[in-house]
Amino acid sequence: MKQKERIETILGLLDQHYGTDIICYLDHENAWQLLIATILSAQCTDARVNVVTKDLFRKYTGVEAFAKADLKELEQDIRSTGFYHNKAKNIIACCQDLVNKFDGQVPESIEDLTSLAGVGRKTANVIRGNIYNEPSIVVDTHVKRISYRLGLTKEEDPVKVEFDLMKALPKDHWILYNLQIIALGREICKAPTAKCEECFLTEYCPYYKKNAGKQAPAKKKSGAGK
Predict the structure, then answer these.
(1) How far apart are CA 158 and CA 32, in angstroms?
(2) Which of 154, 184, 223, 226 is deepest in the core (most CB within 10 A)?
(3) Record keywords: Ligase included (predicted)?
């Protein structure tokens, strides 16, 4: 099977298994809330972030409030998300830039977004895909791991993985692929050990084909009883 046909088949199976609805796992009502939630999600589960932001967005009701926040107080507000010193500093600096450079609005372009404190390509693409409906590929730990296992990239650097996937996948599936692969990674294709016996992609997966035949050698029979 040619690579293009294999990819089309994989995407079809992902659509069939997970559906084609665009779902964001981070709770938000607008662009700035999603931006802050995504900054908080680094090295933290979406579920934990949603617990924290439920109260956080009641306390800080807009970009201006975060821009004026007391650093130590904000650190305590987000402490349970981990790496709270850097996250609090970045959130305040990011919101100050939003107020001073972008009239309090979250920008759309990848260049403007990545100019903000604490915002890399991953966070920027979350905003572009979910807020502005701009096709984008978010390379998190699941997307990086599973794309490598599926043979869609040989790269380790997330930016290089992103560009490989942009070449390999049709644009209309970029956002969907992110969501579907995250679901697959949480349920089946885990690190370090994938549950290949439960996976619906094994027929098209180089990782499975490489590892499926690896079994412990059979024990030698004892000579007794001959």
Answers:
(1) 24
(2) 184
(3) no
Does 147 map to a domain? yes
**Rounded distance between C-alpha atoms, residue 18 and residue 183, angstroms:** 8
Same domain, 14 and 51: no
Give the Cα separation of 184 and 214 in Å (integer): 23
Give the chain's domain count: 2
Q: Please enumerate, by residue number, every residue annotated as part of a binding site for [4Fe-4S] cluster.
A: 189, 196, 199, 205
Model pTM score: 0.84
- Among the candidates 71, 96, 130, a domain finishes at 130
Contact 202, 212 (CB under 8 A): yes
Q: In terms of domains, do 37 and 17 share one?
A: no
d(CA 43, CA 192): 17
* Neighbour tally for 81: CB within 10 Å: 23
Quick check: 188 and 194 in contact, CB under 8 A? yes
The per-residue pLDDT for range 146-186, each reduced to its tens digit, is 999 999 999 999 999 999 999 999 999 999 999 999 999 99
Q: Residues 14-53: pLDDT tens digits?
A: 999 999 998 899 999 999 999 999 999 999 999 999 999 9
> Residues comprising the binding site?
189, 196, 199, 205
Q: The domain that contains 176 carries what CATH number?
A: 1.10.1670.10
Instruction: Note the pLDDT tens digit of each residue in 109-153.
Output: 999 999 999 999 999 999 999 999 999 999 999 999 999 999 999
Q: How far apart are CA 223 and CA 219, in angstroms?
A: 12
